[in-house]
Amino acid sequence: MYAPIAAGLLAAFVGFAGSFAVVLQGLAAVGASPAQAASGLMALCIAKGLAGIVLSLRYRMPISAAWSTPGAALLVTTGAVEGGFAAATGAFLLTGVLLALAGMWRPLGRWVSAIPPAIANAMLAGILLALCLAPAHAVAEAPVAGLLIVVAWAVTARINRLLAVPVAVLVTLAVITATVSLPEGWAASAWPAPVATLPVVTVPAVVGIALPLFIVTMASQNIPGIAVLNANGYRPAPGPLFTATGLFSLAAAPFGAHAVNLAAVTAALFAGPDAHPDPRKRWIASVVGGAGYIVLGLSAGLAVAFVSAAPSVLIQAVAGLALLGSFSSALLGALSEAEDREAATVTFLVAGSGLAFFGVGAAFWSLLAGLALRELRHRGAGYRAR
User: Fold this and answer.
1) Bridge-partner residues for 357, per DSSP?
2) Which domain holds residue 194?
């Protein structure tokens, strides 16, 4: 009985510590105040914790939920949009609607699946590029602190890759505590309070945030999350799970949460043999993990206080280390198909450029550019074949 409890608590800690810095960076980039960012982080923890508990109890399977880490990285690269954080909140709501519809309306799910994997991976790799360069920038700007963080990550990864980022987070917190003075009154704001934001719908936010966020979340989180469950012998119907994550996203969005989805990386902890020798009892681990997420959500204010006081380059460095695995997997997927390699390269470069037209960020334009070039190449090949 102790095994699923230990696995659930470990997965909750890894899931939170491994990427909360990315979430806070993303929310701040699209205009969230510290209070709104703390609210968003708390809402995400509660929503994904409840989603994991409800779905695991409903299906008696180790179904776990997570926040969209690649989606948070997308927010970092997109930056502020017309209408500020209210417009971003409107985009979060629309993303929740799309996630729910993907489960209820099969053509929408098929449309996402129809995007060539090379193009989807190239867009994700381009989105992650800037953050993955941050550890190198940290070493250049703050050599001692930057090297401590990177070396801690590298040494721990040699022993246990799963704990590498959490250990880097702990080292970062130690560096911040030793070298940075926290602002007066930070303890009073350590407990987060829900901050509701009245959503506003703007075209730039819909096109630049909602649509890419939906695609990234489906392609890099929901679909791999189902694959992890299948690999461990579980065969839940995907549609109801997608709909459930969309509904939890909708409920949390007004409080600053960008997206809730099926877990992909930490799902292996819940669904694998380490959680319990008996596959029929592994759902207990995901219920415990869900409860752990809810408790960790209450530390969101403390997390924001530390992140706000720290040099931004150190926080970005931790975020970049957390995303290296996703970046390498996406880059490998983008370039693995020879016939799509050129289109994927263009997609990657446009997404990584950070360019914006008409208030719409690079992720959307990279998708258009890659799909257009791929279609042009394939049509040209068909014409020459005739």
Assistant:
1) 360
2) 2-385
